[in-house]
Amino acid sequence: MDVTLSPGKPSRNPVVSREEWLEARRRLLALEKEETRLRDKVRAERLAMPWVKVDKDYAFDTPKGRKSLADLFDGRSQLIVYHFMLGPDWDAGCPGCSFLSDHIDGALPHLNHHDVTFIAVARAPLDKIEAYRKRMGWKFPWVSSFGSDFNFDYHVSFSKEDLAGETVYYNFREVPPSEAHDELPGLSAFYRNEAGEVFHTYSSYARGGEELIGTLMILDRAPLGRNEDSTMNFVKRHDEYEQKPQETGSSCCH
């Protein structure tokens, strides 16, 4: 049956007795436990992945001058790079990347004290990155790969020539340029040993970074879920949401 929760918002869910609800909840719990076990299996496979030594020299513009990939570890052995979609000629960062980035600052102390450095990399010049970071109020480190092959080598940036071809390589497969853009999102992990050698250990693309977005994990447990027509189509930069009028005793005209 459809039960109206609010004007114009019918529920697709039946209303049942508490006993029937508990039965349904136990069935879901079995699936949730299966999902947890599968996630543990995936995590173990991820940790067992082989590594690739990074022999190419990459240079990045940072607020403290030019740095190499090894320098970005900031004295730690592990580095997580978020490939942020902000191209050289973009006026603002990608809303989806910005949504993910809103969740990072609170995690930084925990990551840093667990021997992990998190850093965002974008192809925009550093002054453009710093201006957007100031607008968003973020504190996490963010560097520019402008003029470097880094974004192209890790398959998150595409030249006009790339996009004029028949396919581009993204998310470990060839895709038509119509499914691509000059910048796309991704996340890569690296390890630096005591000898200073750097290894590429992992990358993920497209929806692979969703688990970093705590808001989505909370919405997945809300009555209406993500309530989206396409992936994250409801998301805006956090300073672009309309402020709803503060509720008063009478709100029928809102």
Q: Strand order, biggest sheet?
A: 3-12-11-6-7-8
Shape: globular
Low-confidence regions: 1-7, 247-254
In the CATH classification, which architecture of the domain at 49-212 applies? 3-Layer(aba) Sandwich
Work out the helicity level: 25-40%
Structural class by SSE content: alpha+beta
Q: CATH homologous superfamily of the domain at 49-212 - what is it?
A: Glutaredoxin
Mean pLDDT: 92
CATH class division of the domain at 49-212: Alpha Beta
Overall strand count = 12
Whole-number radius of gyration?
22 Å
- What is the CATH topology classification name of the domain at 49-212? Glutaredoxin
- Return the string of H and E elements: EEHEEEEHHEHEHHEEEEH
Question: How big a fraction of the residues is strand?
Answer: 15-25%
Describe the structure.
The protein has 254 residues and is of the alpha+beta class. The protein has a domain at 49-212: Glutaredoxin. The protein is 27% helix and 21% strand. The protein has seven helices and twelve strands. The protein has helices at 18-47, 95-101, 108-112, 126-136, 150-153, 160-164, 214-219; strands at 3-6, 9-11, 52-53, 59-62, 65-68, 78-83, 116-122, 142-144, 168-170, 173-175, 186-192, 198-205. The strands form four sheets. It has a six-stranded mixed beta sheet. The protein has a two-stranded antiparallel sheet with strand order 1-2. Strands 4-5 form a two-stranded antiparallel ribbon. Strand 11 and strand 12 (198-205) form a beta hairpin. The radius of gyration is 22 Å and the shape is globular. The model is unreliable at 1-7 and 247-254 (pLDDT under 50).
